[in-house]
Design brief:
The complex is a heterodimer. By secondary structure, chain A is of the alpha+beta class. Chain A has 5 helices and 9 strands; from the N terminus they run H-E-E-E-E-H-H-E-H-E-E-E-H-E. Chain B is of the alpha/beta class. Chain B is built from 7 helices and 14 strands. In chain B, strand 5, helix 4 and strand 6 form a beta-alpha-beta unit. The chains are: A alpha+beta, B alpha/beta. At the A-B interface, strand 1, strand 2, strand 4, helix 3 and helix 5 of A face helix 1, helix 3, helix 4, strand 6 and strand 7 of B.
């Protein structure tokens, strides 16, 4: 079982303060306008809106991250899988490899806040599409007026949590993108076999031709969204 | 981790018992939508030996504004046994993260959708002893857990896993939805538990709607978000709720970063019934200040 100690968070946080910048690989969990009255940070604690420029409109990208240097140094410890044909033995081996991998690996959440006009050259829905991977460089807040990035997690020690700034955002190169997809998958989990024993779920309900005559095309991709379709 | 510990997890991972958690129950009893702050955690109860007992849980979340005071508090409020079934609607952290903070849920029998997901979710999944994914073949096909009297917990995985190398995936559209049904056909009464999936995306919901089942309760999809709505979502919900009173539950904290819930949208869509308005609205945390309750009961 992986546990994150307060000591390990200090070790994680130190490079942000002293070296000025830390690179992460970051998985897009969701993105969209911040609409609520309260804003919560990656540690699930409420943060002062004044830190974000008061009532200014904010677009938040929530990212599940791992330090790039850590990933690169440890990814070789996890053997590549052909995800079209994984054996049970490979799943078990992958589980063991992941448990070793996570034992010493901290996984912060990054919350990137963008105001109107920030990063004007990027297509936000495309770049921040859910389940994509990005490379994010977070620097010390004193360096610029760049967009804020909060770094933390509920299990990290309280008080060691503070915002940095976005120094760079870029696509992941093909080699590491493939390894991120491979390693941070659910490949270590077996499917539950259905239909092999009594007590299996039953199919249904089968209504045959008994559907009422609603003139609706349920799967019409052009069905009019009532709002601009969100990113998350 | 020792080799012994590893093999113990592997053995358990490979031996989840066959399931119909309702098989030994006489009937469905009720659903409880827990106050976990932002996120879903729903308990489904049935009648067994003249008592109301837990059948299964659907999601185990709770993020922003959660009421939990530590692992023991989570274990108490969301009590779950090692033999209990815990289904996950999808892998967004607000649908499973209380299991990371607590301890007892890690020993339950998990059934989850295979999806693209975050490093944190993958890490958590390696700490759960009995975890299985839903095979892809039943996608878009509803399944049933049935009690002795025919009451049913329906569930379906909405879409197929796009593959580990796909560019993106909307996990709200490849996750799992549930419906509880008492009785059969047009005389039945149903409750919808859609996770974050818009109501009309579920073929199961469409079939229950087409059966003219009576809708008596629902958890608003995506915590009552005003996004993902289409005209079809509105029409379906409006048509389905014309005849009898029903409850709408918003599974979010009173304050959150998302602006949930968009209660006005629901009131606009559902409040036009021939008088009196039939919908009642509840926020999962609404009773928290009183200290007298930690969930909303449906049925």
């Amino acid at each position: 079982m992986t546990q994150t100690s307060s000591r390990s968070f200090e070790a994680f946080a130190q490079p942000l303060k002293k070296r000025g910048a830390t690179w992460f690989y970051a998985f897009v969990e969701d993105a969209g306008e911040v609409e609520g009255e309260a804003i919560y940070g990656p540690d699930d604690r409420q943060i002062d809106r004044s830190q974000l420029g008061g009532e200014a409109e904010q677009y938040r990208v929530r990212l599940g991250a791992i330090r790039r240097s850590v990933f690169r140094s440890r990814m070789a410890g996890i053997r590549k899988l052909d995800h079209t044909a994984i054996t049970e033995a490979q799943r078990v081996a992958r589980l063991h490899e992941l448990q070793d991998f996570f034992r010493e690996t901290r996984l912060p959440i990054l919350d990137l806040y963008l105001k109107t006009g920030d990063l004007p050259d990027i297509d936000r829905p495309r770049v921040f599409a859910p389940s994509g991977w990005l490379e994010v460089c977070v620097g010390s807040r004193t360096e610029s007026e760049a967009p804020l990035v909060y770094v933390g997690a509920p299990e990290f020690r309280r008080g060691g949590y503070y915002p940095g700034v976005l120094k760079r955002l870029q696509a992941v190169d093909e080699l590491h993108w493939g390894r991120l997809r491979d390693i941070f998958s659910l490949a270590h989990i077996s499917d539950r076999p259905f239909g092999e024993a009594e007590g299996r779920p039953e199919p249904g309900p089968d209504l045959g031709g008994d559907r009422p005559g609603y003139d609706w095309d349920w799967d019409d991709p052009d069905d009019t969204p009532l709002d601009e379709f969100p990113v998350f | 981790m020792t080799a012994r510990k590893r093999s113990a997890i592997a053995d358990k991972t490979a031996s989840i018992a066959d399931m119909n958690p309702l098989a030994d129950f006489d009937s469905l009893c009720c659903a409880c939508v827990h106050d976990v702050g932002q996120g879903d955690a729903i308990s489904i109860y049935g009648h067994k030996d003249s008592e109301c007992r837990l059948v299964m849980r659907f999601d185990y979340g709770g993020k922003e504004g959660s009421p939990f005071k530590g692992p023991d508090d989570i274990n108490t409020r969301l009590d779950i046994g090692a033999d209990d079934l815990l289904m996950l609607s999808h892998w967004d952290e607000d649908h499973w993260c209380a299991a990371r903070k607590g301890t007892s849920a890690r020993t339950a029998n998990w059934l989850v959708p295979r999806q693209l997901t975050s490093p944190r979710a993958v890490e958590f999944s390696t700490t759960v002893e009995k975890l299985r994914t839903i095979p892809e073949t039943p996608a878009q096909r509803p399944f049933a857990f049935r009690a002795r009297n025919g009451d049913t917990i329906w569930w379906e995985k909405l879409g197929a896993f796009p593959g580990v190398n796909s560019e993106d995936e909307d996990c709200n559209k490849t996750g799992v939805v549930l419906a509880l049904q008492r009785g059969t056909g047009g005389n039945s009464r149903v409750i919808l538990l859609p996770g974050d999936a818009p109501f009309h995306r579920s073929p199961l919901y469409r079939d229950l709607f087409a059966q003219k089942s009576k809708l008596v309760g629902l958890v608003a999809f995506h915590h009552g978000a005003g996004t993902h709505w289409t005209r079809t979502t509105e029409r379906m919900l409006r048509e389905w709720t014309k005849t009898m009173p029903f409850d709408v539950v918003f599974s979010c904290s009173e304050t959150n970063s998302y602006g949930h819930p968009d209660e006005n949208r629901y009131r606009r869509v559902l409040g036009t019934s021939v008088p009196p308005p039939l919908a009642s609205y509840y926020l999962t945390g609404m009773f928290r200040p009183t200290g007298i309750g930690h969930c909303i009961w449906l049925w």
